[in-house]
């Protein structure tokens, strides 16, 4: 399990949008099957492009994921604090996004 990305985070506020990296791709990969179940689609391509994060009683992540060609989805994930097991949970998915649509928190 990876440690949460904590640099430059403000407690309660969302960070600016950043480029995804190996760690954020790993988080996305951990919830891929849940995302596919929620959207009822199988993604051959599933690549994190951008992300935002938020410190709460754990960590919220919001990802822009390329799922093939011009198709993107937004995926929101919660990661518990390491002292609480660090588990990951899918909080929401939004389909029919484009590369240019900004990442905004998903309200459930």
Tell me about this structure.
The structure is a single chain. This protein has 108 residues and is an alpha+beta fold. The chain has a single domain, classed as Roll (Nuclear Transport Factor 2, Chain: A). The protein has helices at residues 22-30, 32-39; strands at 18-19, 47-56, 58-66, 72-79, 88-97. A five-stranded antiparallel sheet has the order 1-2-3-4-5, covered by helices on one side. β4 (72-79) and β5 form a beta hairpin.
Give the topology.
Blueprint: E1 18-19, H1 22-30, H2 32-39, E2 47-56, E3 58-66, E4 72-79, E5 88-97
Antiparallel strand pairs: 1-2, 2-3, 3-4, 4-5
Pfam families: Cystatin
Family: Belongs to the cystatin family.
InterPro entries: Cystatin_dom, Cystatin_sf, Prot_inh_stefin
Main features:
Cystatin_dom, 108 residues, single chain, alpha+beta, immunity, protease inhibitor, cysteine-type endopeptidase inhibitor activity, Prot_inh_stefin, Nuclear Transport Factor 2, Chain: A, 5 strands
Could you write a compact summary of the structure shown?
The chain has helices spanning 22-30, 32-39, and strands at residues 18-19, 47-56, 58-66, 72-79, 88-97. It is of the alpha+beta class.
What is the CATH C level class, in words? Answer: Alpha Beta
Strand content: 35-45%
Helix-strand pattern, N to C? EHHEEEE
In the predicted model, the low-confidence regions spanning at least 5 consecutive residues are: none
What level of helicity do the residues show?
10-25%
Write out the strand line-up for the largest beta sheet, numbering strands in chain order: 1-2-3-4-5
How far the N terminus sits from the C terminus, by CA atoms, comes to 26 Å
Separate helix tally:
2
Radius of gyration, taken over Cα atoms and rounded to an integer in Å? 13 Å
Mean pLDDT equals 92
From the coordinates shown, what is the CATH architecture?
Roll
Helix/strand/pairing category: alpha+beta
Gross morphology is globular
């Amino acid at each position: 399990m990876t440690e949460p990305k904590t640099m430059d985070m403000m407690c309660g506020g969302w960070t600016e949008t950043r480029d995804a990296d190996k760690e954020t791709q790993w988080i996305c990969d951990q919830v891929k099957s849940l995302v596919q179940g929620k959207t009822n689609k199988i993604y051959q391509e599933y690549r994190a492009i951008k992300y935002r994060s938020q410190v709460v009683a754990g960590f919220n992540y919001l990802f822009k994921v390329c799922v093939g060609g011009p198709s993107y989805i937004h995926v929101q994930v919660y990661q518990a604090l390491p002292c609480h097991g660090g588990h990951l949970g899918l909080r929401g998915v939004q389909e029919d996004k484009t590369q240019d649509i900004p990442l905004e928190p998903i309200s459930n």
